[in-house]
Amino acid sequence: MISRRHFLASGLAAAAVWPVLGSVRAQSFDSDPFTLGVASGCPKPQSVVLWTRLVFPAEAAINMADPFAPAPARQFGPLDVAWEIAEDEAFTRPVQSGIAPAVPDFAHSVHVEVTGLSPKRWYFYRFRCGDAESPVGRTRTAPAADAAPGKFSFAFASCQQYEQGYYSAYRDMAARELDLVVHLGDYIYEKSYGANLVRRHGTGVPSLLYEYRDRYALYKSDPDLKAAHAAFPWLLVWDDHEVIDNYAMDHAPDAPRSTFFLEQRRAAYQAWYEHMPVPPQAAPDFSSFPIHGLHGFGQLIDIALLDTRQYRSPRLDGPAALDSEERTLLGEAQERWLDGALKGSRAKWTVIGQQTLLSQRDTAAGQDTAYNLDGWDGYRSARTRLLDSVAAAGTANPIVIGGDLHAFYAADVKRDFHDETAPAFATEFVTGSITSDGPSDASIATALAENPHLKYASGRDHGYALMHLSERQARTEFVTVSDRKDPEASARVAQEFVVIDGMPGVNRV
Ligand SMILES: [Fe+2]
User: Fold this and answer.
1) Among 34, 357, 469, 473, which is most exposed with the fewest C-beta within 10 angstroms?
2) pLDDT tens, residue by residue, 466-483
3) How much distance in Å is there from the Cα of 218 to the middle of ligand 1?
4) Taking the model in full, what pTM does it have?
């Protein structure tokens, strides 16, 4: 059993092996360039992506020619960064090492895809540049495709508005025994929202590349978020706030001209890439950036992660065209890809990760109906096509996970949500927000009263969700923090649900 507390703190004390360092150019830094920490992601049976980004403090001098320009960072050109991965936390059993480029064009971010690893193993990794050494991160490869791992546990999270709370949920997550973390979007927020803010962005709404970079750097400087990244491999997809609120494909409500908006979106997508543990891109053009994918973990679980922002039809102004066949949330190409991916999946459990609530939700009390037109309820034919794909593939044990609503939900997914007697076709769990403000108690009560397939809802709590899978069941736990405004808040498992193999639907424990 390893000591997590030790490895997170031990980077500088570890005996350095660094066989490749002779070739790293001598470089000395005025301050630690590794303050954004380290991360890993996209675990496969024989590979994993390692990430870091070097940052340099801005200089205080004001440019008198343009006093409103951002303070320039100390300029560094391309840097060589050494990386090392080992079987143990002290790096006495090194496995591989190498040199990766960190260039100004990509904000001195480092993305290394390490191949030739063994399946279902813990590894430790770190970086060095010149006289600076990163903290140590821990990661885990996926089980082999033909292996039956027996059990698998992952956390899923979304919506972490920095100003509205502290990341105690991540401190709790980092201390658990997990194989993986899945982030479903709203990793950053472009704007200030809400009242009683506990900390501030300190800068305005980003639209340029350096502004998005600064926003990610602020979020990623949080010690609890860094700890969760350093403890497990992550899979991530974005939602809207990584670019701008409620955008749809090439259109945003606050940016009516699509030529300008597409430049902003490209900057936001590039900054996302620069800050996420995703595979290195050879010659990236972020005017489009496919991030959806299928991630397998042995015969037990496949996770399909979807992007419901980049390719979606424009949001409707009213309910007139709700059922229009042409409307899409995934885009035609991603819909076709998902159809094929589900047909190829043979896993015991198939988790479909998307940004929000798939199930229908009437938000109006009584006879009236009202729907969230930014979610699947505004794209009904797309939802039908998704469920048709699941049915046509004969997907075993489909479980949908989501975020976005800043409320926890557990739901029976129906082929026809108006048929109250129909059996559940799939199961759905939506995680509450890490920190972002939640809906009113009244709106949650209405949702539960109007939608019998919604089996549980809470907008008061903040935290994240856990899913523990075995051959026989999937157990979902909603973990909630005592007070998101308290940096020392505690967390506990507040709700538990079980899905039984072969029996879709929510069972409250
Ligand atoms: Fe959100």
Assistant:
1) 473
2) 999 999 999 999 999 999
3) 17
4) 0.93
